[in-house]
Amino acid sequence: MSDQKIPDYLAENQDRFLEELKEYLRIPSISTDSERKEDVARCAEWVAEHLKGIGIDDVQIEQTPGHPIVYAEHCKAPGKPTILVYGHYDVQPPDPLELWETPPFEPTVRDGKIFARGATDDKGQLFAHFKGLEAHLKTAGELPVNVKLLIEGEEEVGSPNLTPWVVANKERLACDAVVISDSSMFAPGMPTLTYGLRGLTYFEVTVQGPDHDLHSGLFGGTVPNPINELAKIIAQLHDKDGRVAIPGFYDDVIPLTPDEREQFAKLPFDDEKFRAQTGAPGLCGEVGYTTLERKWARPTLDCNGIWGGFIGEGAKTVLPSTASAKISCRLVPGQDPEKVFDLARDYIEGLAPDTVKLTFLPHHGGDPVLTDRDNDQVRAASRALKKSWGVDPVFTRGGGSIPVVATFANELKSPTILMGLGLDDDRLHSPNEKFNLECFYKGIETSAYLWDEL
Amino acid sequence: MSDQKIPDYLAENQDRFLEELKEYLRIPSISTDSERKEDVARCAEWVAEHLKGIGIDDVQIEQTPGHPIVYAEHCKAPGKPTILVYGHYDVQPPDPLELWETPPFEPTVRDGKIFARGATDDKGQLFAHFKGLEAHLKTAGELPVNVKLLIEGEEEVGSPNLTPWVVANKERLACDAVVISDSSMFAPGMPTLTYGLRGLTYFEVTVQGPDHDLHSGLFGGTVPNPINELAKIIAQLHDKDGRVAIPGFYDDVIPLTPDEREQFAKLPFDDEKFRAQTGAPGLCGEVGYTTLERKWARPTLDCNGIWGGFIGEGAKTVLPSTASAKISCRLVPGQDPEKVFDLARDYIEGLAPDTVKLTFLPHHGGDPVLTDRDNDQVRAASRALKKSWGVDPVFTRGGGSIPVVATFANELKSPTILMGLGLDDDRLHSPNEKFNLECFYKGIETSAYLWDEL
Hints:
Low-confidence stretches of chain A: none
Largest sheet of chain A: 6 strands, mixed
Radius of gyration of chain A: 23 Å
Protein name (chains A, B): Dipeptidase
Number of strands of chain A: 18
Keywords (chains A, B): Hydrolase, Metal-binding, Protease
Oligomer: homodimer
Strand order of the largest sheet of chain A: 1-2-6-3-7-17
Strand content of chain A: 15-25%
GO molecular function, one term (chains A, B): metal ion binding
Organism (chains A, B): Bradymonas sediminis
Shape of chain A: globular
Largest interface: A-B, 102 and 102 residues
Mean pLDDT of chain A: 94
């Protein structure tokens, strides 16, 4: 195949690719919102029809107890490697809506970027592979490897039905490597392969004082205030050095190696630039670690939400019955989500006075991941990235979680290639999520080359 | 006037009185809710029309920059004392709506109690005076004293326009005593005169970390989390002994006298019964004080609301930009609301790390009050209460705030008689607010006798 065919095809079709991406982004496939169930199903249909349209051989919509999985196979290269592409078509809720400059489900291009919920996480990144496959099929006629695609609709709610499905379909999913684009490049123009991900434990805790709301004048000063008690608990979840104060929390952590710390330190990273990107007055975190170490390879604890009492306009002198917080821990290799939840619950139960009641609601968790930095598939991905971007990729770890990577490692015994196409300022999970069009088009090109290199 | 005329009139008309009260309670006059402005105005009209209907001479609706004041005069007893009756026709918001057994604005009688928002605070208690005036007018033909009525629509938002109106109408309001029924009896069957009230300082504080919501995986562990920081602040607002930790907070407090502490200790009060009424697993508060002392005569600090991050169903791994809390202090005689707010703000500003930004939004405050326990008017009210209830009233202080009492003391130089008709379990400001019909009917009888005794 001539080296120019793919770039030519991409150049000719890139406007259409963008329009198709917009169509995909318009579907509000919010998996956590039970009122969006039909939109999520519609999105699965759209993905399936699109894959058929670009010439993928066998496309199925597989029902689960939750949202459907789209599974496709295009295996016409006997004796050649089999690659499984994983992605997700569901998205995070768009709240708070009022902070979006343009509506989250009306994709808009500004300044070389497309803005929409899911633009980068993960619709845009996954769609780059669709278009890479299309480009290869249309220019070369056939794929040089066997490709399987597994696209789920529950990644943003912790993939509750994916693992059972993977276990039940192990043989069907057999492959030599898994390719996932659901993470970030280290910086614009720096193609990146990610070899580590953090895991997650997520739970809610509710503190109850009185069993109904009381007047703060008639009762204030005599009964436990659940907001004040919850605040005292949260305040004791970290020590003064920014370390998580839950006993045993760090026991199973696999420490960073001196080699890794050295590699991280070599990456061009500027704390002040990073701070400016967050808009926070200052950075903070666990004493003794750099910002990159803190965000990639150290476990954390954050409140993701808190609520209780009167939160409307104006003043209401209520002494509320309950206060609740959503709390999550990012975990690093070695840590177990369930064990960390148990440690957190035991510690919090010990912190609360006996004048209040606590209840816990665990949400999904996810295992942390460390993969090889050197094998055939990683080298092939490196070549494809170099061919499209013109430079060698860097190796990083990621702060987010892709729980399914652990499932693939455990169940399929296949190595995973994490080839992120997004950028750290893509505002995923936030208002005004975006995907740089350069990343989108280069991602398509990389994907188009990848099949030959593999 | 025969002693039997009033009881007979009340017995004959009590069903109608109840129907009229229901009509009054159906108007959702929520003063803090800007969408209810027309309902609040409609409620003022209703009150004015009702006063005209029972034979009150001169009834006016007085516009203010906020909700209107209903002002009425019935001064046909030259040379006799003039009594100002104060009350409010506005109510608290009904949230959380889902906890009401019957809708807040569809008054329902169950088990000898009427349930509705405003049933006791203050529509029901005020309405008892309307009916007491009616009973006296219909049975005796005329009132033996001069009566003025001042009924505002902004009590639940701190009466922002009442003080200027009182100042501007000082001469018109001139009186020998003020009568207010907007508090509680000590216990069922124990008529009560309240001689002290707590004041209030109320403000919101918002903590900002990043200037937009961030993904907790990509940023968690490196930037300040506003929820965690707000929790740390709140946790430092009390010390281990339940005392408010704001420096200077207690400086101006007028301590309870040994005589008062002795009187409080003699009242039949059972901690366990009180605890059971709140439904809390245990009571708590400032070390060194009894429950009655804590709720009536010690200053407090409580969070009334807290919110930040994702508070919807399910899990969202967001690292939020802001978290906010509504915080109020109940104040006791000697303390100044503005000074306490300044102390709180200064202390909180000192607690926050420089990685976050703080903003404060002060809401309304109110002065604490101590009135005489012995003068002509108090003795007259005692006799009226004894005549209707059959026992001498007890003297108490109250934990709530009626800021206007301080205004009357300062501007009109008139003593206030706080004659509460409610009960501590009336759930005012909470779902399922109620007013015992016995309190309503006895309150009407007391009011009907009061004018003769005065």
